TrEMBL record:
The chain crosses the membrane at residues 48-68, 75-95, 101-122, 134-156, 162-183, 195-214, 220-240, 261-285, 297-315, 327-346, 391-417, 429-448. The gene is mdtD. PROSITE patterns: MFS. This is Multidrug transporter subunit MdtD. The keyword Metal-binding does not apply. Gene3D superfamilies: MFS general substrate transporter like domains. Its main location: membrane. CDD domains: MFS_LmrB_MDR_like. It comes from Comamonas endophytica. It is found in: Cell membrane. It is a multi-pass membrane protein. It comes from the Bacteria.
Length: 455
């Protein structure tokens, strides 16, 4: 089966956008210590650079489908690339941590629209019998982002400067803008349902409140953080009442009547808290405590990505053999153990053992993501598929941001507890943080155990 030329160019265009988004999500991690030094900050307090991007993605994704319908896919895709390029440029010229965080928010707004709107453009351009093949082509370059991101980021920091991890997006984005103007069809906006602005505001406030409570724990204190967490929980309760009364809510309460979706979303949230903090913590501990260069730290993440890509080939067959419940409960236990095992990191630890840990973590993390995502959506009715997918994407990005925020708060807490003046206290703080994040991930095993037996 072949595609006509205009459609082939569209696929490359959407694939380029997805590649930019996935590359940017991983390239920053190895550059955090260099950024901290340039901006006069502690490398242990740079998690806000990652949290701001992930949280913004979680906030914008639920509105992406409505925005594309209202203003047209071509116009919105142009805006997405422009925002991403502008945010990248602002990141590169940021002179303080606050400026960098604000620039990452701009970048996240563009990144959140790239894949959902691009996927919608592909859906409208291709007949249904070609859509699966088209989307497989689009998502393939996205797998390269996590593969080359950490190493490329480390290379740029070591041989150029950290600014280039953002500046590299500018020429790529400009090519994307020109190609979008020429090749993406200017389809007419589709009359869409009225946007649930009140529900969106309630969900947005809940996500921001919870994230700020975790991110700002040191500044707010326990009382202030608990107050924000309470406000976020209250906002969710108000949204639930609002959604039950509105005929077309952002996420219909009927979605949560599906048992596998409820369990899958909650399990996704808690499981990803641990899994998503490892790409943040590992390059940091390798550089701050073990003396690795940015390039070396980036290359150490390659085993994780390679194992992840390998397992994806056999994940479906393993799930079919063992079932979702057995797979997720057993794999969650192993994933928790692997996260906690990074507490063994010391300068004396053999390099082969460190690589083996990363390989096993990458394999179990990949299996976890595949099983969680499919069990969440497998029982949805066709008329709930779009809304359920959007909700899952939102939870995934929220969990990624919260995972890094929690790990950063725990790391800062242990560092303060054991004395910032002692050099060994930093390593001990990392070790304790790995153990805590492993225990937190373990909780999701109890959630997945509620899946139906034999499922």
């Amino acid at each position: 089966m072949t595609f006509v030329r205009s459609n082939s160019v569209l696929l490359w265009l959407v694939a380029l956008g997805f590649f930019m988004q996935t590359l940017d999500a991983t390239i920053v991690n190895t550059a955090l210590p260099a950024m901290a030094q340039a901006l006069g900050e502690s490398p242990l307090r740079m998690q806000s650079v990652i949290v701001a991007y992930s949280l913004t993605m979680a906030l914008v994704i639920p509105a992406s489908g409505w925005v594309a319908d209202r203003f047209g896919t071509r116009r919105v895709y142009l805006t997405a690339i422009a925002l991403f390029v502008l945010g990248s440029l602002l990141c590169a010229i940021a002179a303080s941590l606050n400026q960098l965080v604000l620039a990452r928010i701009v970048q996240g707004c563009g990144g959140a629209l790239l894949l959902p709107v691009g996927r919608l453009a592909v859906l409208r351009a291709f007949p249904r019998d070609q859509f699966l093949k088209a989307m497989s082509f689009v998502t393939l370059p996205g797998l390269l982002g996590p593969l080359i991101g950490p190493t490329l980021g480390g290379w740029m920091v070591e041989y150029a400067s950290w600014h280039w991890i953002f500046l590299v997006n500018v020429p790529v984005g400009l090519v994307g803008l020109a190609a979008t103007l020429r090749y993406m069809r200017d389809a007419e906006p589709i009359p869409s349902r009225r946007f649930d602005a009140v529900g969106y505001a309630l969900l947005a406030f809940a996500m921001v409140a919870v994230s700020m409570a975790l991110e700002g724990l040191a500044l707010l204190g326990v009382a202030g953080a608990m107050a924000l967490l309470g406000a976020g929980a209250g906002s969710l309760l108000v949204y639930w009442r609002h959604a039950r009364r509105r005929p077309d809510p952002l996420f219909a309460p009927a979605l949560f009547a599906v048992r596998s979706l409820r369990i899958g979303l909650l399990g996704n949230l808690f499981s990803r808290l641990g899994g998503s903090c490892i790409p943040f913590l590992i390059p940091l501990v390798l550089q701050v405590c073990l003396g690795y260069s940015p390039m070396e730290a980036g290359m150490m993440m390659l085993p994780t990505v390679l194992a992840s890509m390998t397992v994806k080939r056999v994940a479906s067959a393993l799930i079919g053999r063992w079932g979702y419940r057995r797979t997720l409960v057993g794999n969650t236990l192993l994933l928790s153990l692997m996260i906690a095992s990074f507490a063994l990191v010391t300068p004396e630890q053999p390099q082969w053992l460190r690589i083996l840990q990363l390989l096993i973590f990458g394999a179990t993390n990949s299996m976890q993501f595949t099983a969680m995502n499919t069990v969440t959506l497998k029982d949805l009715e066709a008329h709930h598929a779009s809304s359920g997918t959007s909700l899952l994407s939102m939870v995934q990005m929220l969990a990624m941001g919260l995972g890094v925020a929690i790990a950063g708060a725990v790391l800062a807490g242990f560092h303060a507890l054991w004395g910032q003046a002692r050099p060994e206290a930093v390593l001990h703080a990392f070790q304790a943080t790995f153990a805590c994040m492993g225990l937190l991930t373990l909780f999701s095993a109890t959630i997945f155990s509620r899946l139906e037996r034999g499922s």
